[in-house]
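Here is the promised in-class demo. Please do not try to memorize the tokens; focus on the logic of going from shape to residues.
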């Protein structure tokens, strides 16, 4: 029973209010899934380089002496860190982790390829750059789509800090 002085809402109004609530819920779930998809994609694309850079046990470690650079890649000779290791004539390393021709970079060989990944703090941070970008993009989705401003600021700050730390370690 309705309390005295109040009127009962019509069936049509109650149905439209619940439909609007369902639309809001669907929007929030969709935006949360989009933000999660962006973050998972960032981790997925970072993991190919981050895994050998962080988990070097059992992988072939050494040093690359950069001989030449192209658009995105530098090539050079690989010298293994331990005696008896395979000496690769020519390997590829991402140009952004080197200072150019003549630079000697500590690396690890990606299994089954002629590609190497920089090790150490600079290499690990560089491997996670796609995730840093995903954090920045995810922050926009969280702020605009979900209205969670503080969470978005935290995601954006973490992404910017990761990118800034990468820049700082690779330029020193």
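The designed amino acids, position by position:
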């Amino acid at each position: 029973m309705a309390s005295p002085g109040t009127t009962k809402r019509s069936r049509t109004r109650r149905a439209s209010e619940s439909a609007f609530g369902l639309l809001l819920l669907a929007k929030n779930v969709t935006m949360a899934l989009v933000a999660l998809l962006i973050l998972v994609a960032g981790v997925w694309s970072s993991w190919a380089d981050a895994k050998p850079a962080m988990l070097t046990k059992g992988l072939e470690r050494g040093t690359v002496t950069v001989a030449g650079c192209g658009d995105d890649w530098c090539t050079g000779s690989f010298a293994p860190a331990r005696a008896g290791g395979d000496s690769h004539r020519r390997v590829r390393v991402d140009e952004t982790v080197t200072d150019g021709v003549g630079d000697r970079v500590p690396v690890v060989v990606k299994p089954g390829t002629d590609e190497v990944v920089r090790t150490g703090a600079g290499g690990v941070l560089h491997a996670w750059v796609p995730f840093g970008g995903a954090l920045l993009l995810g922050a926009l989705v969280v702020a605009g789509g979900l209205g969670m401003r503080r969470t978005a600021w935290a995601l954006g700050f973490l992404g910017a800090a990761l990118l800034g730390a990468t820049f700082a370690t690779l330029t020193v």
